[in-house]
Amino acid sequence: MSISDHYSVFDHFTGKDSTVLAIYQRLLAETRKFEPVVELPKKTSIHLVNKSTFAIVVTHKMALILNMKLASPVKDTRIIHFELVPLNRFHQEVKLTLLEDIDSILLGLLKTAYEMSG
Q: What is the domain count for the chain?
């Protein structure tokens, strides 16, 4: 039994504003257009996986934090944190509070992260 067997995706939305779930559902619908995308719930996050994890979602009461793995830092005012990790990858975090935060720029970054994970 894996550790993720103890957690469900919807466990992450208990006690959260309904907008947080709506943002996640839209994010998932958009990334599923890349196919395939697997949701892997963990204790504190939900990993979105192609062949490896390309994005990590952390839920907060009024927002989602989306962490994308990319090859270089992104120059965007929405990036709230970035970190260089092994294999010359950058984890870059974006705070999502509105459905409109999922725009063509963000989806382009996610598509790049998705392709790198394949």
A: 1
